[in-house]
């Protein structure tokens, strides 16, 4: 699926530049596991928290088409079907399987995926074959000594790496993956979680490197202090504005991030239909278990 950046900014609520475009999206929570350990990440299953890494439950790829159909009926403004967790979309096969299953049923919807990028280069051909139109890659630093303070370890090709070695591999795979998929016309946005005490001074460098790799858009996500970084502070408005200004020297910056759940449905910042679409329609007996 090749789409122009102009069409994407008009139709994709998470890629809009300037004013929000009032388009909707549905996130399908089909990806349970992860292959890296971000020190600020705390994946949970609940109905209360409004943040990434949270969903009420996991659904199966086979359930996805019915969920999308109900979501469009409830929120016709939906233009995007996305998968953003609650784990990493490439750490397990379910996200790509889901896109393959729904591709012919909803050709009008942009297919979007979020990933940490560790397996992006390895699985690039599968993403292309699945017709992914837009991709978000989370790149939290491009210096191994700093990224090691944000990501404790990774699991890559059945081996665990820790510290700066893990960070170096992750950075290399992220940038190589972005280069590979953007060469095919896929549009990539990069997210960076801003932790002022750790990567606050590196935002411009990150933006420069990901732009060189082919990314079209950049998004700065303020840290939610939790897990092993619960002692860190929430970035101030001034720190966020400064980081955005530094990034904009190299790449357009998205400014409407809502810290969306992995099962969000509707227009970001507006009414969320997730409770109606998931909790009331999919019984506990039908919930997909990945073991």
How would you summarize this macromolecular structure in one to three sentences?
The protein is of the alpha/beta class. The protein is 32% helix and 19% strand.
Characterize the structure shown.
It contains 10 helices and 13 strands. With 291 residues, it is α/β, with parallel strands linked by helices. It has a single domain (5-284), classed as Aldolase class I (TIM Barrel, Alpha-Beta Barrel). The longest helix is centred in the middle third of the chain and has 20 residues, at 163-182.
Keyphrases for this structure?
about 290 residues, alpha/beta, TIM Barrel, 13 strands, three-stranded antiparallel sheet, about 30% helix, 10 helices, single chain, eight-stranded mixed sheet, disordered C terminus
Strand content: 15-25%
Largest beta-sheet characterization: 8 strands, mixed
Say which CATH homologous superfamily is assigned: Aldolase class I
What is the top-level CATH class?
Alpha Beta
Number of DSSP strand runs: 13
- Looking at the structure, what is the overall shape? globular
Distance between the termini: 33 Å
Instruction: Count up the helices.
Output: 10
Q: Overall pLDDT, averaged?
A: 91
SS class: alpha/beta
CATH topology: TIM Barrel
Identify the CATH architecture: Alpha-Beta Barrel
The largest beta-sheet arranges its strands as 12-11-10-7-6-5-1-13
Low-confidence stretches: 281-291
Rounded to the nearest angstrom, the radius of gyration is 18 Å
SSE string? HEEEEHEHEHEHEEHEHHEHEEH
Helix content: 25-40%
Number of domains: 1
């Amino acid at each position: 699926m090749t789409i122009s950046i102009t069409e994407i900014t008009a139709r994709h609520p998470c890629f809009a530049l300037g004013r929000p475009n009032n388009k909707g999206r549905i996130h399908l929570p089909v990806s349970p596991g992860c292959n890296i350990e971000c020190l600020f990440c705390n994946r949970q299953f609940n109905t209360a928290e409004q943040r990434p890494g949270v969903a009420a439950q996991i659904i199966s790829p086979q359930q996805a088409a019915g969920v999308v159909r109900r979501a469009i009926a409830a929120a016709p403004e939906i233009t995007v079907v996305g998968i953003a967790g609650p784990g990493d979309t490439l750490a397990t096969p379910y996200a790509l399987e889901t896109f393959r299953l729904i591709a012919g049923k909803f050709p009008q919807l942009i297919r979007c995926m979020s990933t940490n990028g560790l397996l992006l280069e390895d699985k690039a051909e599968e993403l292309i074959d699945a017709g992914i139109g837009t991709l978000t890659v989370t790149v939290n630093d491009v210096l191994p000594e700093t990224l090691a303070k944000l990501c404790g370890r990774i699991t890559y090709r059945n081996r665990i790496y820790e510290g700066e070695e893990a960070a170096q591999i992750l950075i290399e795979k992220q940038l190589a993956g972005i280069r590979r998929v953007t060469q095919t016309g896929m549009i990539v946005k990069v997210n960076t979680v801003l932790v002022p005490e750790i990567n606050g001074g590196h935002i411009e460098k990150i933006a420069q490197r990901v732009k060189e790799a082919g990314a079209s858009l950049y998004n700065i996500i303020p840290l939610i202090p939790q897990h092993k970084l619960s002692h860190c502070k929430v970035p101030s408005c001034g720190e966020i504005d400064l980081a955005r200004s530094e990034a904009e020297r190299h790449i357009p910056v998205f400014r409407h991030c809502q810290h969306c759940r992995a099962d969000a449905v509707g227009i970001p910042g507006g009414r969320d239909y997730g409770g109606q679409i998931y909790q009331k329609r999919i019984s506990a007996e039908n919930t997909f278990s990945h073991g």
